[in-house]
Amino acid sequence: MTTETLTETAPTVATPKKGGRRKASLFDDERAGRIYRTAAKMIYEKGFAATSMNEIAEAVELTKPGLYYYVKGKKELLFAIMCFAMDLLDVEVVARAEEARDPEARLRVIVSRHAHLFTQDVSAMAILIDEVGGLSEAQRVAITARKRAYFDFIRQTLEALQADGRMRPIDTTTATFSILGIVMWLSRWYQSDGRMASDTVVADVTEIALNGVLTGTGAIPGGAGFGP
Amino acid sequence: MTTETLTETAPTVATPKKGGRRKASLFDDERAGRIYRTAAKMIYEKGFAATSMNEIAEAVELTKPGLYYYVKGKKELLFAIMCFAMDLLDVEVVARAEEARDPEARLRVIVSRHAHLFTQDVSAMAILIDEVGGLSEAQRVAITARKRAYFDFIRQTLEALQADGRMRPIDTTTATFSILGIVMWLSRWYQSDGRMASDTVVADVTEIALNGVLTGTGAIPGGAGFGP
DNA sequence: TCGACTTTACCGACCGGTAAGTAACGGCCC
DNA sequence: GGGCCGTTACTTACCGGTCGGTAAAGTCGA
């Protein structure tokens, strides 16, 4: 029915020639970056539907049409933020975890890197979780697919552990969602300016998640992850 | 600044005399109950800001002013649903957990009852989590206080376990939030009409949460909870 | 007749989005 | 150097539509 435009991956800003350097993501562009970062923060704090384009425009010291010079629409703005967040997950979690061959070491990297990410770059990650309803159909499908791939990556790691007898006899789907619950929930409560150091929180959370699903023998607290 | 009306606890419907029986909650009232239940479902599915009073009215086969005969305003509607959800938590989780004296048994009751609740009565509970931003200041304070009391109840249980040396040397705040993350996340993924039986999911989730925070010795899988 | 309930009609505010205009700036021909 | 043009980066003014909420006039059973 509705003709929806969908940039399948994170749309890169339409930077004309301008400068020489190519930008990796539109979050890095001078003005567009400011727009996307502040929009992410505002949507995180107030919710997508409750955040108007006018408010976003004001926050970046523009008028609404001035904002529309940089952004195609409200949904596209949300979609771009979510793509940025998924990119971060892929780069900071999945790619690093794939370096670990042993499934337990891999799981430790997944949890600790994910937790680390969710104690730093909160707003974009939290939006990724909550505001799928604000997307168009095609956009939602695209984001859901990427989420699903991430989920499967974790579950396959658990399945490898279960095949080795190193995991408790628990359904791997339930276990994956439980681990995700622990680390996703971080963005709801952890305050980077609060009393708790992110390092210790990440360490504690990692220990809880690993001990929760692994059999007692293998899970020793401490250690950054993958061995010699 | 703004003069906000706040019914401190769950507002009971303004049932005139009508029948003889007193209703425990306005969710039980014939018409009001239908309104609150369907509103909870819609807000859960679409988000509070994206759900209009017109849509809610249509869903319960009323016009908008007809709906306003029963509810004072949109915020009050949301607040009433959240109070209902907190009441459920108090009755179904806290009250039952307090019957268990041993902190480990108590923790097991907390997790399993909470998980059970979040695999059954999803919509109201999920709203309780997500839509605090839709409330007025005074309402938000009231709900936050009740949430805080619930959080403290869990953390005190963990502190008792740690004093006994039965819990891993982890920050109790982090541990409490991790447990909450596991069980709160249930409402995001568990589908009661899906392939997984709620009983096994509740059991698995309970095992993960308890093994995550307890030292290996005490946590034996299985068992409904409190012993002889 | 009374009060519980429901309707039609409407309010001002704000929503996402756009049309049209323009100030500033570089490059380019003469 | 002066006149001209195209692009970039915005602005003012405005669109139709929907929002939460209400006034007022019924309707209808007890």
Would you give an account of this structure?
Two copies of one chain form a homodimer. Chain A has 228 residues and is mainly alpha-helical. Helix content of chain A is 62%, strand content 0%. Chain A has nine helices and no strands. Chain A has helices at residues 30-46, 53-59, 64-70, 74-98, 103-118, 122-130, 137-163, 172-189, 198-213. In chain A, helix 1 crosses helix 4 and helix 5 (103-118) packs antiparallel against helix 9. The longest helix of chain A is centred in the middle third of the chain and has 27 residues, at 137-163. The termini of chain A are far apart. Chain A binds a DNA duplex (30 and 30 nucleotides) through residues 16, 18, 31, 52-54, 62-66, 68-70, 73-74.
Say how many strands of chain A there are. 0
Q: How many DSSP helices of chain A?
A: 9
Strand content of chain A: under 5%
Q: Mind telling me the C-alpha Rg of chain A?
A: 19 Å
Major beta sheet summary of chain A? none
Which class best fits the helix and strand makeup of chain A? mainly alpha
The CA-CA distance between the termini of chain A, in Å, is: 56 Å
Task: Work out the oligomeric state of the chains in this entry.
Answer: homodimer
- Tell me the overall shape of chain A: elongated
Mean pLDDT of chain A, nearest integer? 84
What's this, in brief?
Helices cover 62% and strands 0% of the residues of chain A. The first copy, chain A, is mainly α.
Please specify the SSE layout and strand pairing.
The structure is a homodimer of 228-residue chains.
Chain A: H1 30-46, H2 53-59, H3 64-70, H4 74-98, H5 103-118, H6 122-130, H7 137-163, H8 172-189, H9 198-213
The first copy, chain A, binds a DNA duplex (30 and 30 nucleotides) through residues 16, 18, 31, 52-54, 62-66, 68-70, 73-74.
